[in-house]
Amino acid sequence: MTALERLAASVLLPGFSSASAPDWLLDWLDRGLAGVCLFGQNVVDPAQLRRLTDELHARRAGVLVASDEEGGTVTRMESATGSSWPGHGTLGALDDPRTTYDVARGLGAAARAAGIDVVAAPVVDVASEPDNPVIGVRSFGADPALVARHGAQFVEGLQAAGVAACAKHFPGHGATRTDSHVALPVIEVDEATWRRRDLPPFTAAVGAGTRCVMTAHVVLTALDAVPATMSAPVLRLLREELDYDGVIVSDALDMRAISHGVGRAEGAVRALEAGVDLLCIGNPDFPDPYDDEAAVEEVVAAVVAAVAGGRLTRERLEEASGRVAALGAWAAQQAGRPRTPQPADLGVSAARCALQVRGEVGVRDDAVVLVPRTAVGFAAGRRESALVAELTARRPSWPVVADADATRARGVAADGRRVVVVVDGRLDAEAVDTVRAVLDERPDSVVVYGGPAGASDPGDHTVHTHGGGRATARAAADLILEETR
Asked: What sign does the dihedral 197-199-203-204 (CA atoms) show?
């Protein structure tokens, strides 16, 4: 292996497909690979996860293990159930900065105990577009000042627990109607609006000392005509105007905004040229499966060719590698520090305080759980509703009707039992029709909304959780089933 190949590997953060470290990955770590990004397929249980991260760290000092741990539905450590910690939307609805700090510190302590070095959170996008298919309750809310204060607290809480925070997605993904997992979003807004609305939370996160900032695969036309991940003007603004000197991490290069455009390898080269330091390759299992080892080889080869051909300077690559190495050294120092975990019930109690209730929502008799058909949430990955799992675990006799449309929902509601409707995702037009079909037959049905609260959300008996995951599910189930724990 050449020195240049090793240098190229030192700025890569790939995913992999198995629950144990494959030989090819261990070999690449020996050859200088920066680290790995974990996804749901890599985690079976806490003991297995810790064995895996110990094995990865043992290959070389400074190996980075990163994971999406936002709380709510976006988690890899607890991919099967949803997080034990409430998501950002729940924390923003509660609007208690101290609770946000405590939750982030608790989540960070759990990540540190699992051997995770970098947590890809907080999401400091401002949820200014109600029809945004990818951000929604992953954001603290629609008010820039609210997002800024909670984002800063989340950064401080995570890093107090010894894991690096990664504020995302610069320069803001909250105003899009396109999910960058699917296609390339374009934000056509004047620079003054962007500065007033989307920039303050990133300024606050940088001010709080976030060690990483993740880019967005979005075109912000006021600043450049190319995606921010590959935009030198956008990333220069982050460096120079916000005075940010930490690690700039790309969002996953396998997302279709990049992979179906310029391609993973070309996207990697352009991102490095623009000023990205650490290249997240992405998830080789979802939503578009590919060969994990081949993806690393492809990107390394492209970066080496770009330097050899004079397109990418070695100095830029060395600069990026140096920042990544410094982050790895910091993370290694944190691993041995004593931790003070937060109370185990903190996540549930925070979620409970944030519940917004209209009407009588207690269900004492037999009921049926109905889940309207909703779009796939690519950021969360595939999983069943944590609230449905919680309700049926406590009430095994309650049947579940999943993926229901309006016609099926009307038939279920006409059967006579009270209906608990669980709307986990964004309330799109089809989901509204399904909820209304239930309410036409059974106006006393309880509707649980997991997305952003809206004045037009149908129903006289509603619970707004402002997010999902296990903590929120437990809080909502306690309320609906009139139980205390």
From this structure: positive
- Catalytically annotated residue among 150, 181, 464, 466: 181
- In eight-state DSSP terms, residue 229 is G
Q: Which of 179, 251, 277, 478 is catalytic?
A: 251
Residue 118 is encoded by which pair of tokens? 């970098």
Structure tokens given for 258: 């990049």
* Burial of 6 (C-beta count, 10 Å sphere; 0-12/13-18/19+): middle
- How far is it, in rounded angstroms, from Cα 384 to Cα 142? 27
For the segment 98-131, what is each residue's pLDDT rounded down to a tens digit?
999 999 999 999 999 999 999 999 999 999 999 8
- The reply to whether 345 belongs to the active site is no
Phi and psi at 57, nearest 5°, equal -65, -30
Only one residue has tokens 């986990």, namely 424
How high is the mean pLDDT of the chain? Answer: 95
What residues form DSSP beta bridges with 278? Answer: 249
d(CA 63, CA 331): 9
Domains and CATH numbers, the chain: 3-334 (3.20.20.300), 355-480 (3.40.50)
Retrieve residue 270's tokens.
């352009």
CA distance 412 to 300: 54
Nearest by Cα to 19 from 80, 71, 62:
80
461 included as an active-site residue: no
> Residue 375 carries which DSSP code?
-
| pLDDT tens for each residue of 130-158 | 989 999 999 999 999 999 999 999 999 99
CA dist 268 and 279 (Å) reads 7
Per-residue pLDDT, 382: 65
E strand or H helix that includes residue 213? strand 212-215
Surface-to-core class of residue 213, CB atoms within 10 Å of its CB (0-12 exposed, 13-18 middle, 19+ buried): buried
Judged against a pLDDT cut of 70, whether residue 485 lies above it is answered with no
d(CA 397, CA 419): 13
3-state helix, strand, coil in the chain (%, to 5): 45, 15, 45
pTM confidence score: 0.96
